[in-house]
Amino acid sequence: MSAPQPVTYASAGVDTEAGDKAVELMKDAVRATHGPQVLGGVGGFAGLYDAAALTAYRRPLLATSTDGVGTKVAIAQALDVHDTIGFDLVGMVVDDIVVVGARPLFMTDYIACGKVVPERIAGIVRGIAAACAAAGTALVGGETAEHPGLLGPDEYDVAGAATGVVEADELLGPERVRAGDVLVALASSGLHSNGYSLVRRVVQVAGWGLERHVDELGRTLGEELLEPTRVYAADCLALVEQFGPDRVHVFSHVTGGGLAANVARVLPPGLVADVDRASWVLPPVFSLVQGLGSVPWGDLENTLNLGVGMVAVVSAEVADDVQRAAAQRGVPAWRLGTVRERRDDDGTAADVVAGTKGVQGGAVRLHGTYRVG
Q1: Domains of the chain, CATH where assigned
Q2: With pLDDT > 70 as the criterion, what percentage of the chain qualifies?
Q3: Residues 159, 110 contacting (CB under 8 angstroms)
Q4: How far is 270 from 342, CA to CA, in rounded Å?
Q5: Model pTM?
Q6: Which DSSP state fits 148?
Q7: CA-based angle 124:224:279, to the nearest 5?
Q8: Distance separating alpha carbons of residues 276 and 256, to the nearest angstrom
Q9: What is the rounded CA–CA span in Å between residue 77 and residue 83?
Q10: pLDDT per position as a tens digit, 244-299
Q11: Which of 145, 180, 234, 288 is the most buried (most CB within 10 A)?
Q12: How far is the C-alpha of 42 from the C-alpha of 28, rounded, in Å?
């Protein structure tokens, strides 16, 4: 009987040398996000961040968030384009932190893949690093895990976590919101990273290929679906710094669940935000998805951001100034609606959304008809 062939880690499908090469290819991009607060460089067991600056805070509160990008990675894999998905990951994480006015300090990432292709992994991380730089956040560490047999050779998933800080008496939240406040919408760059299971299903049922040029989009379907998420962290923090937490009361990051559900989470009980669907023109990709799949409008607005990526709830006297300040930073903004006291008839209105994500807060009442671009 012949001796069995020796089983090695490589024969099991894990290539540690490829992992080392990926680190070499990405480390310059990661280092570019490091300021003097980051210690130890790239490759340590733990990322180190000097928190000495927090001693200047009267009462520093740490804020943390973790997330992934969902099935949008399937589009990146199909197109073999991997350097933009990092913006989706960073946006999903750090923009949850700035909702309460916290400044994101540092972030870590995790990539699980079926096979380490160094250039692919480095491309993903370069995108994460570029987005971190845009958000003013240090990328202090990460992990790439090779899972042969669990994921296909070209499959991967990404996740990340970030930590930020905010002064306790400058914390933004529902307790700052008052009747008469104005909702200022900050435009999304497209679909961002939510609802891709719906979008991919619509594309599949329609029989469209990602390479198909779509006139109303001005580019291919794949290019549109891979448009990176707009990262709002620096813009939101600039608005708070300019107008103060007494006037910029809270933000709502419009992710899973759509516009109404996410705005309702940041309003206090007893208040309702009236949102006018006609206050903006629906970007073409959203009406395309709706028409292509005959998606009910209610399902669409409960799943996609419909062109609104972030909402600032601000005092009425600064609403116009906030819009102008956002526009000066390159973010289109407009008056989305107003906050008022809740009425008895709101409880029976079909377009009132409340009690989502386990939060018993305020409510949002949608009215009017979308303007299709």
Answers
A1: 13-167 (3.30.1330.10), 174-372 (3.90.650.10)
A2: 91
A3: yes
A4: 5
A5: 0.91
A6: B
A7: 120
A8: 20
A9: 11
A10: 999 999 999 999 899 999 999 999 999 999 999 999 999 999 999 999 999 999 99
A11: 288
A12: 9
Mean of pLDDT over the chain:
91
Worst-scoring range by mean pLDDT, 20-24, 171-175, 234-238, 242-246? 20-24
Q: How far apart are CA 131 and CA 88, in angstroms?
A: 9
Single-letter amino acid, residue 259: L
Q: How far apart are CA 300 and CA 258, in angstroms?
A: 8
Q: How far is CA 40 from CA 4, 9, 19, 140, 183, in A?
A: 44, 29, 20, 9, 43
Largest CA distance in the chain: 87
The Cα 301–Cα 310 span in angstroms is: 15
- Token couple for 349: 């209105």
* Lookup result for tokens 């990661």: 30
363 three-state secondary structure: strand
Q: Which of 281, 278, 285, 280 is nearest to 300 (CA)?
A: 285
**Residue closest to 19 by CA, chosen among 134, 186, 146:** 146
